[in-house]
Structure formats: structure tokens, C-alpha cells
Specification:
GH, about 45% helix, Glyco_hydro_1, mainly alpha, elongated, 4 helices
Length: about 90
Amino acid sequence: MAEDFYHHFKEDIALMKEIDLDSFRFSISWSRVLPKGKLSGGVNEQGVKFYNELINKLLYKGIQPCVTLFHWDTPQALEDEYDGFLSIDI
């Protein structure tokens, strides 16, 4: 599991079920959902679709999704505009 998870998550979830995992922690990549960092820059519908499919497949297999909303992947546009989390504006 984990190598190229984006393209192989269905097989990986089958393996999780096979070894009796009952939960799975993953991060939602801010950059995958909002490539330009903000809603005004547009939403990547394919990114949203991926996470919807992932969560639905986990639940279908009886595996509890444990979602991390931020895991150190600030979009470059926000780093450039605000100097990342050093800014009080972010």
C-alpha cells in the first residue's frame, strides 16, 4: 500500500479489508482540491471526486476514514502571497 495511492486506492482498500483494518488515516491535499490555494482560483473537481470515491469505498468496505485536513502542503500561491503560515493573514 501507499505507492501511487491516487491510482491504486481501490486495490489498496481491498488489501486493507483483507488484513482486517478497521480504519485508515489519510490527508486531503489542499493543493489537489484548490490548486491555486483559494476558492476564487477554482476547485479541481477531479480532486474532489477522488476524495469522494475514496471515502465512499472505505465506508462500503467497513473501514472508518480518519481524515487529516492539513498535513504540511500549503499551495504555492498562498506561500507566495502570504509567506505561508508565517503570516497572520493566512
